[in-house]
Design brief:
Layout (H helix, E strand, L loop, with lengths): L1 E8 L10 H4 L1 E4 L3 E6 L2 E6 L4 E7 H5 L9 H13 L10 E12 L3 H11 L5 E2 L2 E3 L6 E5 L5 E7 H9 L9 E8 L1 H11 L5 H4 L2 H18 L4
Antiparallel strand pairs: 1-5, 1-6, 2-3, 3-4, 4-5, 6-11, 7-8, 8-9, 9-10, 10-11
Length: 225
């Protein structure tokens, strides 16, 4: 399924943003302003007149199991929230990040621990990404400028460590995540004419090509040490 989806809107000026001075807070000296509303995190870049926003499909849809047929409802809800933030006509949204993931339930904490023990046997580098730090309950491959990251982790532990509460729906759940960053999405557009449209990425065809095929090579075809 799709998890995190980020977008950008160009040519957005402060008068286009409803109650800009009241709602948005300056983030740093580079004229970046932030605002979180209904589960969406907005960043406004004043010098570039650009509004970016980060969404999570599960939060927008209020459901755990997000499927291909949910795209219309997701876009309707997303558009409705954006209309409560800006006054201008909403253009076609440009996708700047797309995270695919699958949640794999395991039978026990022991089984989950054994999976991470096996993952440690994989090479520390895969293609151009590599493991920078080793954790007991996660496996994260990236580089500072990488366009694709692999993140495999204990979802229950991640929620506890990040948000400080226990979500038993994710007890002993392994999340297998592939993060497509802005550079990758731009490359797919310029090299293969893959439109930066969420509908394009929200499909079984793209899930197979970008997520399953890529992770299959890493998890199953790459030799263990």
């Amino acid at each position: 399924m799709l998890d995190s989806l980020n977008y950008s809107m160009l040519d957005v000026y402060p008068p286009h943003i409803i109650d800009f001075k009241k709602r948005f807070r300056r983030y740093n000296s580079n004229y970046i302003y932030t605002f979180t509303y209904k589960g969406i995190h907005f960043n406004y870049y004043l010098l570039h007149h650009t509004l970016t926003f980060s969404t999570h499909t599960q939060r927008i849809l209020s459901k755990l199991n997000v499927v291909e047929d949910d795209v219309d409802v997701y876009l309707e809800k997303l558009t409705s929230i954006i209309r409560e933030v800006v006054t201008i006509k909403i253009p076609k949204l440009n996708l700047t990040r797309c995270d695919y993931c699958i949640d794999v339930p395991t039978s026990s904490s022991e089984e989950l621990k054994e999976i991470f023990n096996l993952l440690q046997l994989h090479h520390s580098q895969f293609k151009y990404i590599r493991v920078n730090q080793i954790y007991d309950n996660s496996r994260y491959l990236c580089t500072p400028n990488s366009s694709i990251n692999i993140n495999i982790y204990d979802k229950f532990a991640q929620i506890l460590n990040t948000y400080g509460y226990e979500d038993n729906r994710f007890k002993n759940v392994l999340r297998v995540e592939l993060q497509l960053k802005k550079n990758k999405i731009q490359k797919l557009y310029h090299k293969f004419n893959v439109q930066r449209d969420v509908r394009k990425y929200w499909s079984k065809e793209m899930l197979q090509k970008l997520y399953i095929d890529y992770l299959e090579e890493y998890l199953y075809k790459r030799r263990l040490l």
